[in-house]
UniProtKB/TrEMBL annotation:
This is Membrane fusion protein (MFP) family protein. One of its GO terms (biological process) is protein transport. It comes from Roseovarius halotolerans. The gene is prsE_3. NCBIfam families: type_I_hlyD (TIGR01843). Residues 97-124, 155-241 form a coiled coil. The lineage of its organism: Bacteria, Pseudomonadati, Pseudomonadota, Alphaproteobacteria, Rhodobacterales.
């Protein structure tokens, strides 16, 4: 059967749908391209962390350690600055201090006696503080009396030696006086014999006397002069003895003074040592009461038994300071640290709160560690970043409190970039490193 022209199927064309699809594709690609170039996506460095106190927790330690005498706090106690936390046993230190103070009192009494000997005083002049203390302390009074007895004994011994030398000098003076009288008499005899000798010589020249007479007078004159010489020598020797005694007298007094000065110098050195030791013990005793450095709450108590021994610098407990600003201590990977700087804005998400009710809080980067730190558990390096929540953001917590140790997810905002840059940057980095040895 033959079809007529009117019965043929209509001629359908796909050009219009194709053109429409093509235009839609161009619009989609163009729109995406325009969006990828003109749109901006905010970037952020994600840094996990936790809430901390700005001044950090306070570690309570003792620089020297000791024996626990009393424990006055327990975990979770709220304490104020200056409160006594632990009291160490100070009996040993106080006994040692008592011994040293006794040695210093004895030393002070000896110094008073030596100073009086140095200044050649008649009686000891004690320090007024010692005199006042002796009224209530029999041991000090006994020390003072002992030094008085020693002072008087030494003074009497010196007086006896001085008196003996003075007596010897008096005897020497008397002996010299007697010899001088003999010398005067001999000198008169010498003068008379010399006169007779001259007369006899004149007579001998006139042959009026014998030569033997002249010889006898000359012999007598020589004998008298010999006696004069011996007496003068003896007098000189006695004067020498007197001078020696004078030097001995001077040496006795000088030696007494020098001995006193020498012993005083030794005592002063000893006194310096005792003062230093006393001050050290007083300082140690003053620190037997371990006090709170700040207001806060006690936690992590490490000491539980009285009479237990604590080592020097051993952590005894921790105090979380109160009324101190809370900050977020976050850890930033070292690869992202170049995008973080002080003053940078950040969003803080607290996983401990219901995220549907508690929004993210805003804050700013306050501090960045100067160098990379290392996680003690994993060994991974990181930078510590401190973020301070804005003061007006705390009101968004709706009565909830931030507590130290709460986990926080920090989003540190970086510069905005287009989607195209996000897509191209990894490929650009790949090709920049490609084909390099």
């Amino acid at each position: 059967m033959t079809e007529t022209p009117d019965e043929k199927e209509p001629n359908w064309s796909g050009t219009v749908p194709l053109m429409a699809g093509f235009m839609a594709m161009i619009a989609l690609v163009g729109g995406l391209g325009f969006w990828s170039v003109r749109a901006e996506l905010s970037g952020a460095v994600v840094a996990p962390g936790q809430v901390t106190v700005e001044s950090n927790r306070q570690v309570i330690q003792h620089p020297e350690g000791g024996v626990v005498g009393d424990i006055l706090v327990k975990d979770s106690d709220r304490i104020e600055k200056g409160d006594v936390l632990i009291r160490l046993d100070g009996r040993r230190q106080r006994n040692e201090l008592s011994i040293i103070e006794g040695q210093m009192r004895e030393l002070s009494v000896r110094k008073s006696r030596l100073q009086s000997e140095r200044d050649d005083l008649e009686v000891i002049e004690f320090d007024p503080d010692l005199v006042a203390a002796a009224a209530d302390a029999p041991e000090i009074a006994r020390l003072m009396q002992g030094e008085r007895t020693l002072f008087q004994s030494r003074k009497e011994s010196l007086s006896q030696e001085v008196g003996l030398l003075n007596e010897q000098n008096l005897q020497i003076e008397n002996r010299i006086g007697g010899l001088k009288a003999q010398l005067d008499a001999l000198n008169e005899q010498v003068a008379l014999v010399q006169t007779d000798l001259e007369s006899e010589r004149d007579l001998l020249t006139q042959n009026l006397t014998r030569a033997a007479r002249v010889s006898d007078l000359m012999r007598e004159l020589a004998g008298l002069k010999g006696q004069v010489g011996r007496i003068e020598a003896e007098m000189a020797e006695l004067r020498g003895q007197k001078a020696s005694n004078g030097i001995a007298l001077l040496q006795l007094k000088t030696q007494r003074r020098e001995n006193a000065v020498s012993q005083l110098r030794d005592l002063e050195f000893r006194e310096i040592e005792l003062i230093a030791r006393r001050n050290s013990l007083r300082d140690t005793i003053s620190r037997l009461d371990i006090r709170a450095p700040v207001d806060g709450i006690v936690y992590g108590l490490q000491v539980f038994a009285v009479q237990s021994v604590v080592q020097a610098a051993q952590p005894l407990m921790y105090i979380v300071p109160q009324d101190q600003p809370l900050v977020v201590s976050a850890r930033v990977d070292t690869i992202n640290i170049d995008e973080v700087y002080a003053g940078q804005e950040a969003s803080l998400q607290f996983s401990a709160f219901d995220q549907r009710k508690i929004p993210e809080l805003k804050g700013k980067v306050q501090r960045i560690s100067a160098d990379a730190l290392q996680d003690q558990a994993t060994g991974q390096p990181y930078y510590s970043v401190e973020i301070l929540p804005d003061s007006d953001e705390i009101a968004k917590l709706q009565g909830h409190s931030l507590l130290p140790g709460m986990p926080v997810q920090s989003f540190i905002q970086t510069g905005a970039r287009s989607p195209l840059v996000y897509m191209i940057e990894p490929m650009a980095g790949f090709f920049s490193r490609a084909f390099r040895e």
